Description:
Elements: H1 12-16, E1 18-27, E2 35-47, E3 51-62, H2 73-79, H3 83-86, H4 92-102, E4 108-112, H5 116-124, H6 130-133, E5 137-139, H7 140-147, H8 156-162, H9 174-194, H10 201-208, E6 209-210
Parallel strand pairs: 1-4, 4-5
Antiparallel strand pairs: 1-2, 2-3, 5-6
Helix pairs in contact: 7-9
Amino acid sequence: MTDDRERLADDPRFRDTHFVVLDFEGTTPKGLPPEPIEVAALGLKHEPGKGPVRSGFSFESFIKPPPHAPVQPLDVAQTGITPADVADAPRASIVLRALDAALPERPVLLVAHHAPVEANIIYAYREVCPRLVYTRIVDTRLLAKHLKPELPVYDLDSLLAHYGIPQPESRHRAMDDVTVTAALFRALLTEAARHHKVTSVAELVRVASRTPRAAQPTQLELS
């Protein structure tokens, strides 16, 4: 007997969408929002019979943090990124402008693990990245919660272990984290498709993303 249920791979929007997996590493100055010190992005595009595979798009850069958010010893211990690595790097406004300009042609969906971190950094620099700030981010953490509600935790390391994805050589470096997040995204989409838990891009967006802050309506004060 054939299975006539809708499949994710049959959705034309899924086949056309360019998924861009994104990760920032940053510093967290006391009492202030995080500031990025590295960014990486990697493109995935659906290929019949293989699912989302690397598209050839990639982007990677160190970022010089502002004076109020220098790289601290704790940051070095976690990421391996030193003050010397970012001393001559371009500022975030330059890097995010370049990333925005380099994005593949629409339709594009961003992908990140625990996406509010990436979303907040993008929103803070929204004036220089108009495409990024209005592009939805599919959160692999939300997608995993939708697919596997029985799991006790949904941090990246735990999900990598659950799906048998090897830890990267340099965990907490942007490109290595992007690479394993892309592998996790593929594993989640495979599971979603196998069990018909996500059958379209519209459903993927509904269960695993939030409206970008820049696209949310502004509540006007009553006069």
